């Protein structure tokens, strides 16, 4: 009795103050204003929250599945990557890796993935490539891009369209192999003029750690020049050359082979990093989905409870009104 | 050494060392016996899209697929 009176009173007082559209949906159900709520609707509809919970649950399922897929792909690629590291190491021992070399025609090979949802690895390699361009650009120097993968293309098109020479995509339809990368490296060598090729990729360290790296491949002429100048390449002359080939022929063969080997390793490392990054990204997004789901469940239950309580109060107060 | 004699020829034919070595590798793969042969031939699959860019515009991409050359 008292409750009903209070409510009626409250309504009379509040009517002029509160705007005709009550903000709190809960309130509008308790005090149904004639012009707004439908006839017979007594409680907040939980339909929307339920739908949202269902969709979040589905998203969580999808991200979990993607994580599993990435994990299984990672295992295969990781084994290959670790084996491929042996390919470039002798080259670095022989020809060195001179990232600071100062030459006229720079070609930056940016390696990225074709698909997204893998954290920040693509933007990291794009950032590094841009920084490299800045370092290596000058009045009589030029810097060109060769892009592997859709994602880096999409980012680099925005500001350095003019400098893109080649674009290669859809690498990972079949599992990566040396033949494929060699054909690709061959295409790059035939289509660009270079003094130094700088390959930017994410080196796979562990599932959660990828180090953006640069490998440099010099053209045979530059190697010869550097060897004459001494430094780390000065020892090159002490190697004995077998057969009738000249040194420049040997160097040209070596550079080409070095490029394809370094590319092979870089592509694999990047693919490995991609899967690792996707795995951790999907892991955290399924965790986030779980959090959202928890919050939604809490809201849902609280609303439901509130509706039940209201109904109980109404019944009890109605009964006591009859008795009293 | 036969390789020495071959060097000028493949270079003169416009091949790079990569193409040359790939051809040699593919020949070796063809010589393998059966269980190993088909297994190694799967490692020869090539598939990717190349497009050359001229003046900030991509040209029509060409598809490089399956066996090289």
From TrEMBL, chain A:
<dbReference type="InterPro" id="IPR000131">
    <property type="entry name" value="ATP_synth_F1_gsu"/>
</dbReference>
<dbReference type="InterPro" id="IPR035968">
    <property type="entry name" value="ATP_synth_F1_ATPase_gsu"/>
</dbReference>
<comment type="function">
    <text>Mitochondrial membrane ATP synthase (F(1)F(0) ATP synthase or Complex V) produces ATP from ADP in the presence of a proton gradient across the membrane which is generated by electron transport complexes of the respiratory chain. F-type ATPases consist of two structural domains, F(1) - containing the extramembraneous catalytic core, and F(0) - containing the membrane proton channel, linked together by a central stalk and a peripheral stalk. During catalysis, ATP synthesis in the catalytic domain of F(1) is coupled via a rotary mechanism of the central stalk subunits to proton translocation.</text>
</comment>
<keyword id="KW-0139">CF(1)</keyword>
<protein>
    <recommendedName>
        <fullName>F-ATPase gamma subunit</fullName>
    </recommendedName>
</protein>
<dbReference type="GO" id="GO:0046933">
    <property type="term" value="F:proton-transporting ATP synthase activity, rotational mechanism"/>
</dbReference>
<keyword id="KW-0066">ATP synthesis</keyword>
<comment type="subunit">
    <text>F-type ATPases have 2 components, CF(1) - the catalytic core - and CF(0) - the membrane proton channel. CF(1) has five subunits: alpha(3), beta(3), gamma(1), delta(1), epsilon(1). CF(0) has three main subunits: a, b and c.</text>
</comment>
<keyword id="KW-0375">Hydrogen ion transport</keyword>
<comment type="similarity">
    <text>Belongs to the ATPase gamma chain family.</text>
</comment>
<dbReference type="Pfam" id="PF00231">
    <property type="entry name" value="ATP-synt"/>
</dbReference>
<keyword id="KW-0406">Ion transport</keyword>
<keyword id="KW-0813">Transport</keyword>
<dbReference type="GO" id="GO:0045259">
    <property type="term" value="C:proton-transporting ATP synthase complex"/>
</dbReference>
<keyword id="KW-0472">Membrane</keyword>
<dbReference type="InterPro" id="IPR023632">
    <property type="entry name" value="ATP_synth_F1_gsu_CS"/>
</dbReference>
From TrEMBL, chain B:
<dbReference type="Pfam" id="PF04627">
    <property type="entry name" value="ATP-synt_Eps"/>
</dbReference>
<keyword id="KW-0139">CF(1)</keyword>
<protein>
    <recommendedName>
        <fullName>ATP synthase subunit epsilon, mitochondrial</fullName>
    </recommendedName>
</protein>
<keyword id="KW-0496">Mitochondrion</keyword>
<keyword id="KW-0813">Transport</keyword>
<dbReference type="InterPro" id="IPR006721">
    <property type="entry name" value="ATP_synth_F1_esu_mt"/>
</dbReference>
<keyword id="KW-0066">ATP synthesis</keyword>
<dbReference type="GO" id="GO:0042776">
    <property type="term" value="P:proton motive force-driven mitochondrial ATP synthesis"/>
</dbReference>
<keyword id="KW-0999">Mitochondrion inner membrane</keyword>
<dbReference type="InterPro" id="IPR036742">
    <property type="entry name" value="ATP_synth_F1_esu_sf_mt"/>
</dbReference>
<comment type="similarity">
    <text>Belongs to the eukaryotic ATPase epsilon family.</text>
</comment>
<dbReference type="GO" id="GO:0046933">
    <property type="term" value="F:proton-transporting ATP synthase activity, rotational mechanism"/>
</dbReference>
<comment type="subunit">
    <text>F-type ATPases have 2 components, CF(1) - the catalytic core - and CF(0) - the membrane proton channel. CF(1) has five subunits: alpha(3), beta(3), gamma(1), delta(1), epsilon(1). CF(0) has three main subunits: a, b and c.</text>
</comment>
<keyword id="KW-0472">Membrane</keyword>
<keyword id="KW-0406">Ion transport</keyword>
<keyword id="KW-0375">Hydrogen ion transport</keyword>
<comment type="function">
    <text>Mitochondrial membrane ATP synthase (F(1)F(0) ATP synthase or Complex V) produces ATP from ADP in the presence of a proton gradient across the membrane which is generated by electron transport complexes of the respiratory chain. F-type ATPases consist of two structural domains, F(1) - containing the extramembraneous catalytic core, and F(0) - containing the membrane proton channel, linked together by a central stalk and a peripheral stalk. During catalysis, ATP synthesis in the catalytic domain of F(1) is coupled via a rotary mechanism of the central stalk subunits to proton translocation.</text>
</comment>
<dbReference type="GO" id="GO:0045259">
    <property type="term" value="C:proton-transporting ATP synthase complex"/>
</dbReference>
<dbReference type="GO" id="GO:0005743">
    <property type="term" value="C:mitochondrial inner membrane"/>
</dbReference>
